[in-house]
Amino acid sequence: NKTGYRNFPMVPRVVFGQGSFAQLGDILMPKRRNSNAPFIFLVDDFFEKNEVTLCMPLMYNDKVFFISANEEPKTGQVDTLVSKIQEEFEELPSGIIGIGGGTLLDLAKAVAILLNNNGLAQDYQGWDLVSKPSLYHVGIPTISGTGAEVSRTTVLLGPEKKLGINSDFTTYDQVVLDPDLTKSVPKEQWFYTGMDCFIHCIESLKGTYLNAFSQSYGEKALELCKEVFLEDVPSSESRDKLMMASWHGGMSIAYSQVGIAHAMSYGLSYLLGIKHGIGNCLVFQHLEEFYPEGVQVFHKMMEKHNIQLPKGVCADLTENDFDILINVALGMEALWENALGKDWKEIMTPERLKGIYQRI
Ligand code: NAD
Ligand code: ZN
Fold it and tell me: Do residues 357 and 325 lie in contact, with contact meaning Cβ atoms separated by under 8 Å?
């Protein structure tokens, strides 16, 4: 490869439309290998505890695991699920279906990889360490914003690091985009996960890695985010738009990178367990020096939807805590290079970074 352009996979099949979830049974049918090879459904436990009907097309010995999204996915959690599935069924499943937000979408991707690759999930955290194709897997988002439904990574908290399994086999084989599934998302969560998409756009469009491929997706996603969060009233139309914004935002970063908010939010997640969406918002509000227009629009959106972010999150941290935050964040080299250019280390010193964390 003389030029070094990345040759990355895309989701080969996607259904979009209100109520399209009802087609899942037909989509899975030709992928059923035999009656002993089940489909395993990994579903956000919101759909177990609440009266929201999700009529899953179960057949034969298909199995549903309801899983909490209260904590971000962990490598150990993936390993446990994989062993359970291997112990319970004689045959490899026909496939894995992930239904939920970024947490469940990432879990399902990782389980599909590990069912066809030996070892532990932590062995594959990094870039292109997966050697064999994953099991057939289907992603069905129930909240919009992360872009996990299109991305070639699954972000996992491991024993030593929070890092994605980035590989050509991570990407879903099939995605079902049914905006009706997002009807029940509470307002604050809608905002935080939606802002993940908005921040993907800003970080991609303002980054030094920008190219026409990323720009074309990023601009569309940004336009949709502005309509959804500044103009529209919540409606079926705005749910449609946000679902497509998430898709385009994910596509935009596929061929570029995210930036400062993501690097810093990884630190907050690693040290304090703060979730991705809200973590990005906590950081992004203080990044006016780096993303002046984006931060201004963000404040307008917060105001319009009356969102109050927690304050004093880093107030009681020790020096050692700050060192951890700074190390995790500065470890994300590509993100900083994208945001600030090749000389990023001279621009973002540990002291300056600490100053931003102290404001959170
Ligand atoms: P999430 O999956 O963590 O869910 C957030 C909350 O929303 C949970 O309480 C969940 O139960 C609830 N929820 C989801 N759908 C709902 C519905 N329809 N109705 C009511 N409640 C619902 O949220 P998220 O922000 O989508 O995902 C965050 C995760 O995504 C993080 O772990 C992050 O690392 C990951 N992520 C991955 C990628 C990627 O490319 N793989 C990109 C960005 C973020
Ligand atoms: Zn993100």
Answer: yes
Name the amino acid, one letter, at 5: Y
pLDDT in tens, 267-301: 999 999 999 999 999 999 999 999 999 999 999 99
In the reported structure, the alpha carbon of residue 189 is separated from the centroid of ligand 1 by a whole-number distance in angstroms of 9
DSSP helix/strand/coil, 172: coil
User: What was the ipTM of the complex prediction?
Assistant: 0.99
Going from the N-terminus, what domains does the chain have, and what CATH number goes with each?
14-182 (3.40.50.1970), 187-359 (1.20.1090.10)
Termini Cα distance of the chain = 44
Pairing of strands 162-166, 155-157: antiparallel
Distance 143 CA to ligand 1 centre (A): 7
DSSP state of 133: P
Choose one of 103, 150, 167, 269 to mutate for the ligand 1 pocket test, by most ligand atoms within 8 angstroms of C-beta.
Answer: 103
Q: Residue 284's pLDDT is what?
A: 98
> Ramachandran region of residue 145, left (φ > 0), alpha (ψ -120 to 50) or beta?
left
For residue 17, report the distance from its CA to the centre of ligand 2, in Å: 24
255 DSSP 8-state letter: T
